[in-house]
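User: Show me a protein chain along with its predicted structure.
Assistant: Here is one chain, sequence first, then structure tokens.
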Amino acid sequence: MVARQPPEVFLSDWHGLLTSAVLQTLPLTLHLYCLHHLNGNITQHIWTTLSSDWDNFTCDFWTAYHAVPPEEFEQLWVLITSQYPCAQTHLAEIYNCQECRAWPWVGGPKKALLQLFSNLNKQMDGQTVQQMVHVHESSRHQHVKNIESTFPGPLALLCEYTGPFTLQRCYKEMEDSMFYETEAVKHMINNFANDVVYMSVKWLLCLLNSCVHDIKHLLKVMKCGLKSTHFLIILSDNNYVCNCCMGMNPGVPC
């Protein structure tokens, strides 16, 4: 499964439930609040209480919003709350989310290089911590592969004493040694010109036919790790004969 990359920035209205949902589902995404909704919110909650001072308030509000350094923003914000006491309640709510939409934190060139560096460093530190948490949580859901449970000792030695290339090569060969590719040879039309093992498959088939054995299946089995090929003959009585003769000679299954 390929994980989808989360968006770098998510822009929305300011709402408690939405903010909580974005924080849980998109922890690596920068969440900013829409200025159009901000303008609508202050119009809805403050316009009726200010009446004739509305034009002056909007001018002062957006002047504070566009202040570049955070220090200037703080000074102008204190000035606004003191000049317009009727708007203090809603301004306090807006102030709590200033870093998600106020200009000193989300836009514009900074007046000081140190301030720019500090903001970038803070943002990167937060993302790094969130990414580490995400990787840790993902690793808890990963399951041990068959190769790791079958060869724990050799893999531990390889990790301790070998380099990355050697470890990767050995891991790949260990993994391949556990799997086989099998295909049925249809109608036994293979000429078996590739016989490189102990007994010719063509001769073995003739021998079984002469001994009145019914052949049920003829399977070509290739070991993925060694690329060695065996021909496995399944008889009608569920016995088997392999051209490597392991089962007939030492009694060990091939």
